[in-house]
């Protein structure tokens, strides 16, 4: 048992695996930079280029989406950014860019638990690094955290996040599954269109629930701003909600389209998670 | 005759069919959540995060799109959301997410009438459930219904909805037909691009006529908010208009590209409506 | 000579050709409805749902894009709408939806002159019909015409329209040429992506020059609103500019990628202009 | 050594190469027209169609994105415009439209240094020409330059530009590499989706950092407005930042997905840089 775990752990630090973690780092960096950067930029645009830099402590609580145009700005940034983030890492690490997605694939047996833990670490480090870059270099702007609307309870917010993440991760599964099903061979077009669907569904959901909970759907996206701003309030909501939604999505997808048969699963693991195939349990 | 109907009815409750209904449920839930949620969120964004929650009764009449930025927000949410909704159910149920689309396919003989009725039930239940989730969990926000501009008559609104739905459902037919025509084999790329076209045409039409009638083009999208808000005004408009437009679109498509020949029809029914092929009349 | 023309004319009224004209009608209707409808809707959204209907004569001069959010609304509507318009007619008529595009294909010899004239008639009728539907049914809203900025001359506006149309029609040629070049066989994915590129380039150009000239790039798009509003001012600008730009684009494309060889040309005419292949000169 | 350089130089002026330079010119013209034109148009839209033309000297310093809706307008224009720009030149010149991209491909050995220099010249000439067209024809509007937020240092801006360009050029490499990897044969769908990803990532990054540095990521995009407005301030930032970011992206891509093997490289050079294959070093 212990040697089995050790064996898995060993595989998790191969050269191919290290490339996967680096790909997840770049991918998550791009997504979090787009999500958090667009919230900062929309705020800067509204206050004008000549306005004084907002005080890092007092305005940290300002909503990232304080009017409809800012909501569109951050939703489009997340849609386009997640499209790119999923695509650029798709053939190296699977293009998760989201601990909840990694969790769903771990539950489904597509990725080993030790590898998933390293994925999570990469994703969270990338998120913190993206927020640090945005904070220290961009004139000391406060990094906006994902926040729950004042009229909403933490429990309600977690349920919304679970519903949102369910829809996002279900889309991720359809995109991945159909790709693998197409003769076991996946072209760039299918990968790109799957990534586009994931990005655009995320954008639609940010537009739907952004002013309610921030529409995080991604623990890493909430973790970085919390670390950099030092405001860890409601982190439990942004971890529990997405994880539950992702797990239910993985289950629902298996019920609706059936479990992947051996051939498709093999094709998927060798094509989707190219460099990490040896670490799949 | 009665036994024939009973036989069809029996096929409509097979395991494959139940999966189709569940897929329509998830698909319609995603679309209605995006459409109605974005209208609520745009309103919340405009009034600011610290504003009091609007009273559920008095503001039910507020327009979902009260300025151009809110119009863009809800149109983009519907474009991206419908893209995802059509895509995630495409290989299980055909990805209708709209009773008017189901009606058009029933007229064209692509789907049996009993199955169509179950599709409708799934779609309407999903819409009501999406609106309930948005209402009870999101700080008791009023659920905005699709509304007719005060300067417009119900008859005029029904005609606009018919025109809008004609364009949407014609696009649905082109997307479906071309897919099947490509050698009887449909890849993920064609499915995704067809879904993208359907979503983006819907977005363009919401931008064109949103402030006139709400640009519903989808009885389920209007039904859920009506049930949850208790305001059934103009429901007839949102059922008659889209149904007529969808029927004319099915007819126009047959005239323009000719009736599907036997091979293409068989390929379509077996590929597009994968799990429901046994229930096609 | 006369009999040759008669022969060509005869081919132009075959059943296949009539289908092409009907396809161009639907396609242009969708695009003009999106372009003009979004301008009306953005104006309605800005003035609020309860505001009095603007007087049809006095506000006809109001700009269709009176702030940045309205500009985004109409640009996105045109991008998404043109994507759909080109796609739904692509396999029947080639999906022009624009007299300038038809002109460029006539210059390049891809379509006969008599057929081109019927295409133009369909496109202009569709534009007028779309504007009539928008005007008479939508509470008597004034139909906004494409207008030249007060600081600009008609000559300058024609040059801008020529530059804009050059870029749009060059994109149309690349999309069409690459499709045909792919083994002489064009799948739905290539058609859809070509249409997407055409739509999105149009959207980018509306964002670039909308407040300058309206960024028409399409005589039909300017003709319908002029007829319905009775304001034919600057029609010469919206015909001369796009036609010149389209002609230069056809020429530039031939220089850059070489004239289509016989095989590719045959493949293109039989696949792109499916129903009109017998009328190609 | 000298004769070697002369030989390379000679190849750089072949007919195929001249076509490449012309393709880069058109491609960069389209992108810069969209980027700069949308900034001018958003400003015109905000001030209304009847407002006096802004004085060319005093308002040159006005931010191109003075509110969230303008930020969305210019980001979407760049996303859609870059998609088109990359696509229309992809099969002739590779579709760079950006000196930093050309630099990255020169570092990677995909394009010879003399050819790269001609690419740069084409790109910069195109940018200046696009800005001249926008300036002289559009009622003498001031051409907005990319500007650094007043709270930011030039060094910080260069670092942001480097990060932004890293993400953009990494995406360019993934799009190009995966295309070539698909059996050595690249279809229109893969080219178009790669171009779409590049455009959308650019759009996301403009939304993320537009109000900080203008999110140029492209020395040509900053060079044209500087020449036309006569304001060369911070040009060093807009050259150094992107070049460093592009170089690191080329390196990171080689580390993550390995160096292209001989077969893929040959396939890439013959398919991606069709007309310039003879000038590759």
From TrEMBL, chains A, B, C, D:
Stretches that traverse the bilayer: 21-42, 68-88, 100-120, 126-143, 155-175, 187-207
What keywords are assigned to this protein? Answer: Membrane, Repeat, Transmembrane, Transmembrane helix, Transport, Vacuole
Please give the name of this protein.
Answer: Aquaporin TIP5-1
Where is this chain's protein located in or outside the cell?
Answer: Vacuole membrane
Q: Sorted alphabetically, which PANTHER family does this protein's record hold?
A: AQUAPORIN TIP5-1-RELATED (PTHR45665:SF27), AQUAPORIN-8 (PTHR45665)
Membrane-topology annotation of the record: Multi-pass membrane protein
InterPro entries from the UniProt entry:
Aquaporin-like (IPR023271), Aquaporin_transptr (IPR034294), MIP (IPR000425), MIP_CS (IPR022357)
Q: Which Pfam families match?
A: MIP (PF00230)
Which residues belong to the signal peptide in this entry?
none
Q: Which GO terms describe its cellular component?
A: vacuolar membrane
In the record, the note on similarity to other proteins reads: Belongs to the MIP/aquaporin (TC 1.A.8) family. TIP (TC 1.A.8.10) subfamily.
């Amino acid at each position: 048992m212990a040697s089995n775990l050790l064996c898995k752990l060993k595989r998790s630090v191969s050269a191919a695996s290290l490339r996967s973690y680096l790909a997840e780092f770049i991918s998550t960096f791009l997504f979090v930079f787009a999500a958090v950067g667009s919230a900062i930029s929309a705020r800067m645009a509204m206050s004008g280029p000549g306005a004084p830099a907002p005080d890092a402590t007092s305005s940290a609580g300002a909503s990232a989406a304080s009017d409809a145009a800012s909501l569109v700005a951050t939703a489009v940034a997340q849609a386009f950014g997640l499209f790119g983030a999923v695509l650029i890492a798709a053939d190296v690490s699977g293009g998760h860019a989201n601990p909840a997605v990694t969790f769903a694939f771990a539950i489904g047996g597509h990725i080993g638990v030790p590898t998933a833990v390293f994925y999570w670490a990469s994703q969270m480090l990338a998120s913190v690094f993206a927020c640090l870059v945005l904070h220290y270099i961009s004139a000391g702007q406060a990094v906006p955290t994902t926040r729950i609307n004042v009229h909403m309870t933490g429990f309600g917010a977690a349920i919304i996040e679970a519903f949102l993440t369910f829809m996002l991760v279900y889309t991720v599964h359809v995109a991945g599954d159909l790709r693998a099903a197409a003769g076991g061979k996946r072209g760039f077009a299918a990968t790109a269109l799957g990534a586009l669907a994931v990005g655009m569904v995320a954008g639609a959901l940010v537009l739907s629930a952004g002013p309610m909970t921030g529409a995080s759907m991604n623990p890493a996206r909430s973790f970085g701003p919390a670390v950099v701003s030092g405001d860890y309030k409601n982190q439990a909501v942004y971890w529990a909600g997405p994880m539950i939604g992702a797990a239910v999505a993985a289950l629902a997808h298996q019920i609706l389209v059936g479990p992947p048969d051996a051939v498709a699963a093999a094709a998927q693991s060798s094509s989707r998670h190219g460099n990490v195939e040896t670490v799949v349990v």
